Amino acid sequence: MKLFLIALTLLSLLATGASAEPAAQPSNTTAPGVSDDAKADSDAHIEEAVVMLLSQHHRAPTLKQLLGLTPRARVFVERIARDESAFAFHRERALIALGYWADDATFEYLTGLLNDPQTDESLLHTLLPLLANSFGERAVGPLTPFVLEHENVQVRISAAAALGRLNSDEAFKILDIAIEQEPNPIARQRIEDAAARLR
Questions:
Q1: What is the pLDDT of residues 18-46, one digit of tens each?
Q2: CA-based angle 99:125:129, to the nearest 5?
Q3: What dihedral do alpha carbons 127, 162, 96, 9 form, nearest 10°?
Q4: Distance between CA atoms of 185 and 179, rounded to whole angstroms?
Q5: CB 140 within 8 Å of CB 159
Q6: Which positions make up the signal peptide (predicted)?
Q7: Cβ–Cβ < 8 Å for 143, 162
Q8: Is the dihedral of CA 15, 19, 21, 22 positive or negative?
Q9: Fewest C-beta in 10 Å: which of 44, 68, 96, 140?
Q10: What gap in Å lies between CA 165 and CA 162, rounded to an integer?
Q11: Helix, strand and coil in the chain, % to nearest 5
Q12: Residues whose CB is less than 8 angstroms from the CB of residue 5 and which lie 6 or more positions away in sequence, other chains included
């Protein structure tokens, strides 16, 4: 409890200090009179506060919470999301939060990570619904091979569930194909359930 109060106090102080930061200032410049060391130290404290927000146990922080901490929240979220050495829980939460910035750069990074053979299968279960939730019908193409061709039945089920969240005729067609070719009866039932949500 004491650690929680200290963390809450730190977040409050950082959020107060961060709100004084000019929103229009580019992230790669330093305010006049502020040394690079001071900026790096400030960034380290802000990144630590972002990690603390990502550590909430019940859900990822909201966009409002992140931007309330710093207008440069995306910079810190993206840094953690791209850090393969980061604590897996923090990285997963950062990836989910990165979905708040659903632009081309985020899409390219997430689909690249999805298709990277080095990506741990446990992370695929985060990426599949994240792409569907953040990018809608644009995610159908990248999700398709995971429901139709992936060797892991759990990944196929996750991909089907992600496609089942989309209000898309194309997603329904892909799920229909998946139902026909799925050899596992339990997975086939799950894919049918996902397709039924689109009918």
A1: 333 333 333 444 445 556 766 777 888 88
A2: 40
A3: -140
A4: 10
A5: no
A6: 1-20
A7: yes
A8: positive
A9: 44
A10: 5
A11: 70, 0, 30
A12: none
CA distance 84 to 191: 31
Alpha-carbon separation of residue 151 from 121, 126, 181, 194, 196 (angstroms): 11, 17, 13, 19, 24
Name 162's Cβ contacts closer than 8 Å, sequence gap at least 6: 128, 129, 131, 132, 139, 143
Closest CA to 158 of 126, 113, 192: 126
Task: Enter the pTM of the model.
Answer: 0.77
75 residue type, one letter: V
Alpha-carbon gap, residue 90 to 117, rounded angstroms: 21
Please tell me the CATH code under which domain 102-199 is placed. Answer: 1.25.10.10
Give burial (CB, 10 Å; 0-12/13-18/19+) of 63: middle
Q: What is the pLDDT of residues 135-181, one digit of tens each?
A: 999 999 999 999 999 999 999 999 999 999 998 999 999 999 999 99
User: For the chain, what are the domain ranges?
Assistant: 1-19+41-101, 102-199
> What is the rounded distance in angstroms from the CA atom of residue 41 to the CA atom of residue 52?
17
Question: C-alpha angle with apex 91: 68 to 102, nearest 5 degrees?
Answer: 60
Phi, then psi, of 148 in degrees rounded to 5? -95, -30
Is-contact 141 168, C-beta < 8 A?
no
Torsion, Cα 90 91 94 98, to 10 degrees, reads -170
